[in-house]
Amino acid sequence: MLKTRVITALVGFIIAIVCITFGGVVFDALITLLALIGWREFTLLAKSRRVRMPLLWGYIYILAVMTSLSLGYYNIILAIGLAGVFCLYMMMTFGERYKLHNVGYSIFGVIYVLLGMGALLLIRQDSLYSLLPMPYERDNWGVVTIWLLLFTTWASDTFAYFAGRAFGKNKIVPTISPNKTLEGFIGGFIGAIATGIVYAFIVGTPMYMGAFFGLIIGVLAPLGDLFESKMKRICDVKDSGVLLPGHGGVLDRFDSLLFAAPAVLAYLTLL
Prior knowledge:
Blueprint: H1 2-22, H2 24-48, H3 55-71, H4 77-94, H5 100-124, H6 141-167, H7 182-203, H8 207-235, H9 250-253, H10 255-268
Helix pairs in contact: 1-2, 2-3, 2-5, 3-4, 3-5, 4-5, 5-6, 5-10, 6-7, 6-8, 7-8, 8-10
């Protein structure tokens, strides 16, 4: 099991290096694919609760939003969002299979997936930073920032794991995740901030930026993990999918980022 997890992680890391380095359509295509798979996994979770969701509607909706973000057509995102919700309303009005709770599950699932994956796509776009109040001009803000986000998120998970194993005594929410402890959370929080500061120092960005990244991620990454755990408990499943051997599905692997990435993007707009 450990060997499988390590191999999957290494392959994923190599893919991340290639896609982040090339950026552009390569990275955008990867994130869009992950968003589509994430939507599929969410519909399967809902299916375990006997909730029918319009799979094709979600695919089209997510593809339209992610393509618009990739091409920089930010001004039509709201129109796409309203059109998508209107289509759901019409399905409920004229269809026999879709009730109000189907609409609620569908809107929630799309927002859950799109907020995180859309934020990841935008954070990597170098062109976006010309519109943001960054500390100084830099040609590769997208690469620097996306790696800062990833490293601090991984650090949060890793430090939380080892701190929890070494010092963990006080359970946070044992009914959701029995292995999560207060000591592990504190370790992950400190580790995320420390990693953010060290990374910022190495790449030559303001260290306060790395510290704030660590602060945001140190809080939101474990919350994203707990939220995903709660959904799986409600649906009585171990993993959201089987795409990543040893890790589960996309929602399992990206649960922390789905919470952290939108907050980081919001922080970047306020620098």
